[in-house]
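Researcher: Going back to the complex we discussed earlier. I've cleaned up the inputs and rechecked each line, so this should be the final set. Can you rerun the prediction on the complete assembly and write out the structure?
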Amino acid sequence: MSALRLPIAGHIASMTLALVFLTVTLTLYSPLQLWVMLLALCAVLVRMALYAGWYNRAPSSRTINLLALLSGVTLAWFSTDLGLLLSMINLLAMACSLKLMLMTRRKDFLQLFASTLFLIGCGFIFSQSLVNTVMYLALLAVLLLALTALFSPGRSLTRQARSLAVSSAQALPIAIILFLLLPHLSPLWKMPTAKSSTTGLAESVTPGDIANLSQSDELVFNATFDSPLPMRQERYWRAITLEHFDGRTWSVSPTRKQIRNQYQLLNREFEPAASGRAFTYQVIAEATGQRWLYAIDIAQVTDQGRGNEIWQGADYQLIARRPLMSKMAYDVKSYPDVQLNQTLLTLDSRLNLQLPVKGNPATQRWVSQLRQRYPGDAAFIQQLLGYFVQEGFRYTLSPDPMPLNPVDAFLFDKQAGFCTHYASAMAYSLRLAGIPARIVTGYHGGEPIQENVLSVRQYDAHAWVEAIIDDRGWVRFDPTSVVSPARVSFGLQQALEENGDTLNSPFDGLYSMPLFGSVRLFLANTDYLWSRWVLGFDADMQQNLLQKLLGELTPRKLLLFFLAVVGGLALLLASYFLPRWQPNTRPEHYQVIDRAEQLLTKHTGIKRVNQPLHAYQQTLTPHLSPASCHALKTLVQDFEHIEYAGKAFSKARLKAMKRARRDLTKALRSSS
Amino acid sequence: MKTEFHAVIKALSQHVIGKTDQLKLAVTCLLANGHLLIEDLPGMGKTTLSHALSDVFGMDFSRIQFTSDLLPSDMLGVNIFDTVQQQFQFRPGPVFSQLVLADEINRASPKTQSALLEAMEEQQVSIDGTTHPLPSPFFVIGTQNPGYQSGTYPLPESQLDRFLMRISLGYPSWEAEQSMLRAGSDRKTERQPALISPETLQHYQQAVAQVHCSDSVINYILRLVVHSRDEPGFPNPLSPRASKAILQSARAWALLHDRDYLVPEDVQAIFVAVTEHRLRSQQGEYADSDVLSQRLLDSVDPLAA
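Model: Rerun complete. Updated structure for the full complex:
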């Protein structure tokens, strides 16, 4: 019998491990390839067959090697498409599946256990939401139960669960202290950028695009205000400024991109001056895979730590240096009353008078007629907006497609559309009239989930127009608000209800039920708190916390504090794991021999492996100087006399022994 | 080493060349008043050793060649009706000798084997209700061919441990065999004068019991024995009889080396000879080269407090 070999049939620990592994694999459905998941499923089926006793022999390692070779080749084939990170995760899951089929020893089990822990860690790369965290914690608990089942298979489940609970409770304070107090160093290893799809707003907008976003209630960001919430009419969260129009699609102007790249090369940045009324808030943005950030105009990033990571564009846009692969929190101060006239307006004008080469002839004619009648900019804009009202334009999420000359079709034929249709038509018309204009996409509104917290979701996506009016600079016009004031004042839901239009969701009825509403609000709130306080706990928050604890922070104080924390924890763990100090109960002559043995082992590098002293002495003789040999011989003889000869214990012998030990020490020292 | 024993070993070495360790163990076995089992292939000097031992200690010697048709009475002796005296007369068998060489003991039928082993244990023979004491000192050297040879009845474990020690002579070294060949005819017909008389031998046997054994050595023996019982990998754990045998042999070894107290080295010196045949399962595992008793020695620290 060998304790290292696992039983096969009916071994609960292995089966539990296999099931946890399968579940973790299933939760990683987006990064994992289908065939890897199938492999994992097969492995678990093999385990199941072994568990039930249909087979009593794990697959031979030759079979597994062949399978490993095939899988390796397949993975190598796909790896160029997957990128490094995803390939590695696939490789890990694949290797685990193969190991699971081959698991026969305790060592295999422990390896697989550790790898599954790592897979769970990988799960957090893709989502750190509260729901995911709770799910992974549950899986972790089951995984740990499998471990306890391995080491104490005889115990009942309740006892195992209890001991697990006790150890977890012991570990929890340590985890919390580590989380709160250990310095947040920047990672040594950065996650390679995943080739995952981006979400949210796109860098180019064709009228109709944002309508798709409106079907999604995915969270975009939470904003926590220090000041009271801004009015609904002021909640225009700028994300992307679009300055190039090709007759159908608005996109980021190539010139603007060039300018931005030059600025970044020179490490310069647009710094708008601002003062007056301001909102101070923190935004926790969800991962989008893109670099756009959200803020109300004119925004200035206030936290110093983020200064390097966020860049202010000359179009009043906040841009992250790296795509948002995970949540990102940043502090912003917004000055809503300041005019947007601090950029080079001549350049802006030139960029924003660009027109498509051809197309939309009806609009061109109509605008030139209108412009002749109303040469003043203000009057012209007034008329333009008035047109939407007079003609009875409708606001709808499901407009008819307008494939040819979309602006013409929208303005004169369909006369119904979504915010992008209005913004596009208006900005185009303004440009035709010689007024520089552009489209801004972003979000409008947001739902207060707490007194001072706004939660903005994808269905809040919006597009509006900016035009240069004299020296006031860029002025915001929202044609949608003219057509459907409710959209701006009360949100999308309201606007659609007024028009008899609805979001195409089977759960629409639910939104009106008070219970569902409050549950949804509660969940949103919890998720917010989780991101705000747990995921958002960064170096700054830590510094604030420490400041509260320690008063003024000096580097010296911080260093001492961190050392104290680490040292304290190390001491705590050491007191738990190190063997307790015990008084040496060995007789004195044994202690002398032990000491001599330590010296000899250190000096010669030869350990006494369960040998009696004479044998050890003989082993050592060739490695020792004659003086050391003599001292050792005397020592051994004295010891034998005391321990074995059955004479009355004599102090003199012990003294002689100690003397011999000292001689030995001296002889060893002089010989080395 | 005590001078007498030094001479003894020297004398024995002239017959069995280059096997000092085995010779010392054989003498130790004699001193400990135990029986010796020699396991070897034919022609390795088993018989020579027995002859030499009987010569050196001046013991009368008889040899029983075990065969499958040997009956217990052939060995122990029979009551024969004396027609002159009109009564049964006991005719003692070859076992009535101070040193008995039971050659190829595993060739005999189990019945005969057990009769011999019983005599070894009791040091007396009962025939037809009469008990006949065996001479003293009484010493049996059993020889046995390795179990995989054909036509053998392997001794059961319960009888193997009647032998205090089992040794194996093995092939001689190049030089030893060379000098043996040079010396020519080896089996000398005339008996050498005894170096130690049987009476002196008995005296020494009693002295063995006087060798002091400290608690730490007793504990060492116990740790060894208990280790064989607790740890996996030992098919036949050591019995209390085995631990007694270890102590007795170690004492004899210490006496042989002219010491009146035991050290762990004594235990180690005799340990393999005393325990290997007790530890090992007899069911055809001779091919297993792992020496179980050595493994036991390697895993127990003699200095543990």
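Model: Worth noting: The longest helix of chain B spans residues 240-256.
Researcher: Good, that matches what I expected from the previous run.
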